[in-house]
Design brief:
The complex is a heterotrimer of chains A (86), B (241) and C (121).
Chain A lengths: L4 E2 L11 H16 L53
Chain B lengths: L1 E8 L17 E6 L2 E7 L9 H15 L4 E3 L5 E3 H10 L1 H11 L2 E9 L20 H34 L3 E8 L5 E10 L3 H14 L4 E8 L19
Antiparallel strand pairs in B: 1-3, 1-4, 1-5, 2-3, 6-8, 6-9, 7-8
Chain C lengths: L13 E4 L2 H13 L5 E2 L2 H33 L4 H24 L19
The chains are: A mainly alpha (86), B alpha+beta (241), C mainly alpha (121).
Chain lengths: 86, 241, 121
């Protein structure tokens, strides 16, 4: 049976020179871990979960949306998905 | 119709010449009983976390902040209009009170990396005078481990307390996360009145000099992301967990 | 972008550090722990459930360990009881390790971030 993916890719940028990457990471730490949330609204990757638990590798959500988060234990040389409009 | 939400403001910002939002959608305002949500239409299933979108989100929030007090939304909130309205109406009191908290403030961030103190030796107070079985030995070694962890925690919390007491006069509210077992031992967010920003910065500069063995990363000013979430309780005193 | 240059609040956040590389390394954990893909095939659901369950067991196991040690220190256990308790906990740890292996999980996979409470491990 084919598994259908709902693709949500984290754009892992090509290695930027230190400062730009640091700046993005620090920004990410602010906009991704904090801020107002509306419980129950679909956000970037999981439904019904507060994204402050960003270290949570697994989540089984409510019955209606059986989205599941699987942490990819990829080896470093597996290419990440490219976005066409990056 | 789904909206991507950037922030909730206490008054309508002008959208003249404003940035476009995520997915090149125009920014719009949505009023609900005096609160104003800054949104843009969104059609996808979910929002990709990538450089462009993240920076766009932050840029929109920052630009609205030049005009009014706001509570930033977390990146990636996509919601139907009805749900957004009912959220704003249902949580109005909490939102207003939080807006009052962050009014005229900016958020500053301090992160500290330490070299984790090497294996702390703990003297064993239970010197066995009889042979210790396998099970007991197991417990004893776990005990060592836990005692070591506790010392580490103490040291980490001391850093948090030091920061806290030294920044006390400048900070309206703070949220500190301490992780004794991590290299990134402390991440602090501080809500600072704008008028105190330069004094705060001076103080932080002093703190960096006082403990050169600690590696600091300071950033800001940020919109008040850390202080926006009305559903989270957090310590206003230093030394969490 | 409309932005008044005099208004300090429109300024982009400055980031200041003498140790950029270290912080990059540490902050990457933020993106590393994010899911890179969501899928709903049955294997993943199983895997996901396994992680959840094992995480909970691991949490409880640690609590039990701490409690056992407290009782040991409190002196209300006989040497035999200490030995039995230790052995039981040792076996539990080993079993959990075995289960982790079966599902291809590392310690880090169970090291969930409990937000303000800190990490599990």
């Amino acid at each position: 049976m084919d598994s259908s993916f709902e693709q949500v890719t984290v754009g892992r940028d090509v290695e930027f020179p230190g400062d730009a990457e640091l700046s993005l990471l620090e920004t990410l730490d602010h906009v991704l871990n904090r801020g107002l949330v509306i419980a129950g609204e679909i956000t970037i990757s999981v439904a019904d979960v507060d994204l402050i638990f960003v270290g949570l590798n697994v989540l089984v959500s409510s019955v209606e949306t059986a989205h599941e988060v699987l942490r990819e234990r990829q080896r470093p040389n597996v290419p990440t998905a490219k976005r066409a409009d990056d | 119709m789904k909206f991507y939400v950037y922030c909730v403001a206490e008054s309508r910002p002008s959208l003249e010449g404003r940035l476009v939002g995520i997915a090149e959608s125009d920014l719009e305002l949505l009023d609900a009983e005096g609160l104003v949500a800054v949104v843009s239409k969104f059609e996808g299933e979910s929002v990709q976390i990538n450089r462009v979108n993240v920076l766009r989100h932050e840029a929109v929030v920052r630009s609205v902040l030049t005009e009014t007090t706001l509570l930033p939304f977390r990146f990636g909130t996509v919601v139907g209009e009805a749900n957004l309205r009912s959220f704003l109406i249902a949580r109005r009191t909490a939102l207003l009170s939080r807006l009052a908290l962050v009014r005229n403030c900016i958020e500053m961030s301090v992160k500290i990396i330490w070299q984790i103190p090497s294996k702390l030796t703990v003297t064993q107070s239970h010197e066995p005078d009889v042979e210790v079985g396998v099970g007991a030995a197991f417990l004893l070694s776990k005990r060592q481990e836990i005692l070591g962890d506790e010392t580490l925690s103490e040291k980490a919390n001391e850093i948090a307390a030091w920061l806290g007491s030294r920044l006390d006069g400048f900070v309206r509210q703070s949220q500190i996360a301490v992780e004794p077992k991590q290299k990134l031992v402390l991440a602090g967010s501080y809500l600072i009145e704008q008028s105190l920003e330069s004094k705060y910065r001076e103080q932080v500069a002093k703190l960096k000099e006082e403990r050169p063995h600690l590696h600091f990363l300071t950033s800001g000013p940020w919109p008040p992301y850390t202080f926006a979430n009305i559903d989270l309780e957090f310590a206003t005193q230093f030394g969490v967990s | 972008m409309k932005q008044s240059p005099e208004n300090p609040r429109s300024a982009e956040p400055e980031i200041e550090t003498s140790h950029a590389e270290e912080f990059v390394e540490q902050l990457r954990c933020v993106t590393d722990t994010l899911p890179s893909r969501i899928n709903v095939d049955s294997h993943s659901v199983e895997q996901g459930l396994a992680k959840l369950v094992l995480t909970l067991i691991e949490f409880i196991r640690r609590l039990l360990e701490k409690q056992a040690i407290r009782r040991m220190e409190g002196g209300d256990l006989s040497p035999e009881q200490i030995e039995d308790l230790g052995l039981a906990l040792m076996k539990l740890e080993a079993k959990l390790h075995e289960l982790k292996g079966q599902f291809g999980l590392e310690d880090e996979d169970l090291n969930i971030d409990l937000g303000p409470v800190g990490r599990l491990i």
